[in-house]
Amino acid sequence: MSRATALSLRNLSKRFGNTEIIRGLNLEVSSGERVAIIGPNGAGKSTMFNLISGRFAPTSGEILLNGQRIDGRKPFEINRMGLSRSFQITNIFPKLSVFENLRCAVLWSLGHRYSFWTFLGNLKDANDLAQAWMQRIHLDSKSDVLAMNLTYAEQRALEIGITMAGGANVVLLDEPTAGMSNSETERFIELIKSVTEGKTLLTVEHDMGVVFGLADKIAVLVYGEIIAFDTPEKIRANPRVQEAYLGTLAEQGD
Amino acid sequence: MTVNRHASQPTAGAWVWLGFALVLLAAPWVFTSNLSLTMLSQMGIAIIACLSYNMLLGQGGMLSFGHAVYTGLGSYLTIHALNAVGLGQLSLPVSVLPIIGGLAGMGFAVLLGFVTTRKSGTAFSMITLGLAELVFAMSLMFSEFFGGEAGISGNRVVGQAVWGITFGPQRQVYYLIAIYTFICVGLLYAITQTPLGRMLNAVRDNPERVEFVGYNTQQVRYRAFIIAGFFAGIAGGLGALNFEIVTAEVVGPARSGAYLLFTFLGGATFFFGPILGGILMVLAFVLLSEITKAWLLYLGLVFLFMVVYAPGGLASLIMVNLRVIKHGKLRGLLPSYLGFALASLLMLAGAGVLVEMIYHQQLDAALGPDLPFAGMVLNTAEPMTWLVAGGLFFLGLWFFEQVRRRFAVRWTSVHTDITRSQAVSS
C-alpha cells in the first residue's frame, strides 16, 4: 500500500445488553478509496457507521481517523477532525430553507464557531460556499424553500449536500439512494460520484448496481464481522461471499 | 438568484426600526393618563423579558419554566445597587443600573445554565422547574438579600442628576425604559442574524444533525441561555427602577409561567410575537385584573383556546392573514371571521355570566343575589339566569364549531390557490 490509511477499525466490538452486534471487526481504508459495505439485514452496517461517526461508543476496540484515535469521542469532535456522515432516514433541518441548511453545514468548518457578533449576511465565505453547494446538488432554484417542503429526492440531495459541504475528507453515506426510483437512483449516483471526487468514501448500499458502479472496493459484513474486503470482481468471485450473502443478488446487479 | 439576496437588507428594515422608535417616542403623548404611562413603562419591560424568553422557547426550542429566576435576580441586584448608590457606597448614574441587573441575570445564567443546558427537551424543562422552585424557596430563607415578605424597597431619585434628569417623574422613567427597550429589541433581533442565532434554530429543529456538522449542541444552548439571562436581567433591573420595590414574587413560579404564557400567546415562531405578548401581558395584569376577579380563569381559557386552534400565537395569525390579503383572498374569508367574532361573543357572554355568578355566590353572597354585569343586573338566585347563560354559551360553542368547519374548507382552498399562483409565477 502506497497510500496512507484514512480510517482503520481494529478489533471493534459493540454490545447492546447481551446482544453483540459488532464482533471483532477489522477494516483498513486507504485515503481516496471508495468502499461499499454490503451485507444482509441486521449484519451491523448501520451500527458500524454509528460507531465510526461517534453516535455510539464502541464496547471495545479502536477506531483511527488519519492515525488519530476517535473511538468514544463525540460526533462534533469527530466531525471537526474531518469525518462526515449522511443518514439513512433523511436528517435535515426541516424548518430552515435549503440555503440555511447548507449555510449551517459550512459555518463551523469556516471557523465562524459560536459567533454572535458577525452578521450571517456579511459572511461572504459562508454564503458563497453555501451557494456553490446549492448549485452542485442542483437545488439552487429552491434556495428559499423550507427543507420540509422539498420532494423526497430533493431532500436526499440536500442530505448529501449537508454532509459534504463542511469539507470533510472521510465521508460515510448510509444508504444514500434508499427509497428512490430507478431513474432517480441513476442520476443520484452521478451526483454522489461528482461530489465525493477525491474523498475517502464509505457507503452502505443495498442496490448492487450502485455498489458495483460506485465502489473501488467492497467490504462484506456478516454477523458483525468483515468476511471479505476486496475489489468488486474478486468479491463477485469469492465463494465464501456468494455462500454467505451475495448469491442471486450479484446476478441481479449485472 | 444571487448571494446578495441573503444579505441583510438595510433599507426595508430601517423603516421598521424607525417606526418602532417613533412609536416608543410618541406613545406617552398619545396615551397621556397616569395609568397609561405606568402601563407603557411596564410594557417596555415585559417586551424585553418575553423576547429574552423567546430566545429559549421560540428560537432554541427550550421550554423553560424558570425564566423569572433571571429577571427576578436582576431586579434584586439592581435594587441593592440602587440602595448602595443612595448610601454613597456606589457611584453610578441610575440610568446604567439596569445593566447591573443584566450582568446579574447573565452571571446566574452562567452558573445555573451550566446545569440546565446539559440536557434538552423534557429533562431541560424539569431542571428549570426545579431550579425555579429552589430559588423561590431561597428567597424566603435569606431575608437580608430578598427582604422577606416586605421585599426590598429603594428610591430611584438618588445620586447625581445627569442633565437634570432625576427619574422622579414617571415620564422620565418611561423614556429610560423606552431607550433600553429599543436597544435590547435591536440587539436581540441582531443575534438572530448571526451564526449562533442560526445554529440555535438548527439545534431546535434537529439537534442530532447539528452534532454532525461540527457544533456542540450543549454549547449552543448554553451560550443562548447566558445571552437570554443577560436580557432577562435588564428587564428585571428596569422593573426594579420602575416600581422601586422588589418582592419575592419576582422570582416566583407564577411570574415564570406568565412569561411562558404570554410569549406563547404573542407567538413564539416569529421574532415580533413576544413583543405582542409583552403588551398583552401588561393589559391582562393591569386592566383585566381590574375588571374581574376571575381574570386568571379567563386567561387560562384564552390560552387553552390558542394552544388548540392557533398554536403559532397572535403573530402567526397576523402573518398568515397578511399573506391572504397580499394575494387578495381576504374577501372570501370575511364571513367566517364575522361568524367567529359572533360565536366568540356569544360564548364569552355566556361563560362570563356563569363565571361571574359563581364568583359572586362564592365570595360576595352576603351582598345579596344581585350582580351588576355589563350594564345589567343579574339575579343569581333565579334559575332562569343560569339557564339563559348556559344556553348562550352552548349556542356560541355550537355556532363556533359550525363556522370552524366551513372556515377550514375555505381556508384550505384559499391556500391551495395561493400556492398554485406562486408555483406558476416562479
Can you walk through the features of this model?
Chain A has nine helices and ten strands. Helix content of chain A is 37%, strand content 24%. Chain A is globular, with a radius of gyration of 18 Å. The longest helix of chain A has 15 residues, at 239-253. Chain B is mainly alpha-helical. Chain B has two domains: 10-311, ABC transporter involved in vitamin B12 uptake, BtuC, CATH 1.10.3470; 327-425. Chain B contains 16 helices and four strands. The A-B interface holds A 53-54, 74-76, 79-80, 84-85, 87, 91-96, 99-100, 103-105, 107-109, 112-124, 126-128, 131, 140-141, 143, 162-163, 166 and B 1, 3, 5-8, 190-191, 193-199, 201-202, 204-206, 208-217, 219-220, 223, 227.
- Give the quaternary arrangement of the chains: heterodimer
Radius of gyration of chain A: 18 Å
Q: Which fold does the CATH topology of the largest domain in chain B refer to? A: ABC transporter involved in vitamin B12 uptake, BtuC
Spell the H/E element sequence of chain A: EEEHEEHEHHHEHEHEEHH
Secondary structure elements and pairings:
The complex is a heterodimer of chains A (254) and B (426).
Chain A: E1 5-16, E2 19-30, E3 34-38, H1 45-53, E4 60-65, E5 68-69, H2 75-80, E6 83-85, H3 98-107, H4 124-136, H5 152-165, E7 170-174, H6 182-195, E8 200-204, H7 208-214, E9 217-222, E10 225-230, H8 232-237, H9 239-253
Parallel strand pairs in A: 3-8, 3-9, 6-7, 7-8
Antiparallel strand pairs in A: 1-2, 1-4, 4-5, 9-10
Helix pairs in contact in A: 3-4, 3-5, 5-6, 7-9
Chain B: H1 10-30, H2 34-60, H3 68-86, H4 97-116, H5 121-141, H6 143-146, E1 152-153, H7 170-192, H8 195-205, H9 207-211, H10 217-243, E2 245-246, H11 253-266, H12 273-291, H13 295-309, H14 313-326, H15 330-363, E3 370-373, E4 376-379, H16 383-425
Antiparallel strand pairs in B: 1-2, 3-4
Helix pairs in contact in B: 1-7, 2-7, 2-10, 2-11, 2-12, 3-4, 3-10, 4-10, 7-10, 8-10, 11-12, 12-14, 15-16
